[in-house]
Amino acid sequence: MSGPLSVLQKAERLQAEARRLNEGAKGEEEARRISERIIVLRTHLVTLQRHLRIARSLLMQPASPDIALSGVDSGLAAFSRQCEGGGLPPNAAFTRASTAVQKTVERIARDSQEAWRQWTQTQLAGLELARQVMLSIGEQSRAKSLHQDLVKAARTAEVDASAITLFANAHAELAELLSTAPAPPPELQTLLDRLASGTSQLLKDITDAEIALLRQCQLDGDLEVRRRRA
To answer: What are phi and psi of 2, to 5 degrees?
Structure first.
């Protein structure tokens, strides 16, 4: 079956045929009718092409959920045949074609957004963020910035092809950065989880061994000690 834009090309040729009609009110009215409906159909088909690019961009990503692209020409076959028949399709043919394309756009947009949500959450969950604490201060800052960008991008209300590319690139950079750091010792991870719990920690609650571990891992510069007010 011919693609959506090839159907549009056939429809546009109808404009030329309408103009070849006998001059007069009938010919002008027919040409106007065809032109108006081609504009509507073109809008829907261009939107369909944009959402197809988004869906295909997602499908190219590793571990991306499937998006059904079969049936994108649904509802256009009959219209395409009428374009080739030598006559001018009736208004109802344009309406049916435009409605079919619009429904396909809505389905692909909905499926792409859900695939984007699933894919980004899977990608974020797969990052070894625990290794971040073993990076240098500068690398930690970069890793934190990349992760914030990824989380923000994953929350976008309407995905587009550029957002997919930016997310994939940022994720690849962050994953590579984290891979250069060793996994933190279990006792360090336990301590960091305790410090990040939101519960105030007194200096007396932190052992000399834990302070030495923080210094050894060059994390003592990330912590702040304040005297509690009386």
So the answer is: -70, 150
Contact 21, 91 (CB under 8 A): no
Rounded to whole angstroms, what are the CA distances from 164 to 39, 58, 60, 205?
30, 7, 10, 45
For residues 193, 196, 200, 201, the Cα torsion angle rounded to the nearest 10 degrees is 50
pTM: 0.74
Query: Would you place residue 9 in the very low, low, confident or very high pLDDT band (cuts 50, 70, 90)?
Result: low
According to the 3-state scheme, what is the secondary structure of 104-147?
A: HHHHHHHHHHHHHHHHHHHHHHCCCHHHHHHCCHHHHHHHHHHH
**Averaging pLDDT over each range in 6-20, 115-129, 191-205, 208-222, which range is the top one?**
115-129
Q: What are phi and psi of 95, to 5 degrees?
A: -60, -45
CA distance 87 to 150: 53
Q: Which of 10, 111, 137, 129 is nearest to 58 (CA)?
A: 111
- Of 180, 178, 192, which Cα lies nearest the Cα of 222? 192
- Predicted local distance difference test score (pLDDT) of residue 1: 42
Least confident interval from 36-40, 118-122, 144-148: 36-40
